[in-house]
Amino acid sequence: MNLAEFEDRYGTTERRRYLIGLLENELNYIVAQGWLYRAFVFGSLVNSDRHEPGDIDVLLCISKPLGADRWHKVTASDDIYIKSVQLSPDSKPEAQMVPPLKPCHGVEKMVRLFNESTIETGENIEILTNECVELTL
After folding, report:
1. What average pLDDT does the segment 96-120 reach?
2. Domain presence at residue 94
3. Which label site among 13, 37, 78, 109 has the fewest CB atoms less than 10 Å from its CB?
4. Domain total for the chain?
5. Domain of 123: which CATH number?
6. Taking CA 28 as the corner, what is the angle to CA 22 and CA 29, rounded to the nearest 5 degrees?
7. Alpha-carbon gap, residue 63 to 36, rounded angstroms
8. Average pLDDT over the chain, rounded to whole?
9. What is residue 44's predicted lDDT score, i.e. its pLDDT?
């Protein structure tokens, strides 16, 4: 679903549009760096009709060149929480100086990685693939 469709469907209040705007800023930053991403929104924003959700929950997979600085949030807001998986290109000797970016993980793998990571940290959070909405700019 592209961002305009996402906002039409889920941006039903000022608070929801504000949260979606924060995510748009993050995705624009990623794209401006020349990186690939796949974003999956879950939580109350897409799975409830709450008028004033507290935050926006996002699984984010970013593919960028090996050796680039770790991706970080560009907004100072505490209203957006992103779980990311950084992919690095294959390091084969015959690889070019700037190898192509690997494709990002799909929702099944991202949800599995998320659920595994919450078990390791002792958090009591688990999500399902059908609770996620893929978002593109």
Report:
1. 83
2. no
3. 78
4. 1
5. 3.30.460
6. 95
7. 5
8. 82
9. 95
What the block records as the tokens of 16 is: 């929801």
131, two tokens: 């609770």
* Region of 67 on the Ramachandran plot (φ > 0 left; ψ -120 to 50 alpha; else beta): left
Cβ within 8 Å of residue 133, ≥6 positions away: 1, 6, 10, 40, 41, 42, 46
What CA–CA distance (Å, rounded) separates 133 from 129?
A: 9
* Residue (of 77, 86, 73) closest to 113 by Cα position: 86
Give the pLDDT confidence score for residue 63 in this predicted structure: 86
Is residue 75, in this structure, part of any structural domain at all? yes
Lowest mean per-residue pLDDT among 15-19, 45-49, 100-104: 100-104
* φ, ψ (nearest 5 deg) of residue 132: -110, 145
DSSP annotation of 90:
-
Task: State which amino acid sits at residue 8.
Answer: D
In a domain? residue 93: no
Range of the domain at 15: 3-88+99-135
Cβ–Cβ under 8 Å, residues 62 and 35: yes
What global pTM score does this model have? 0.77
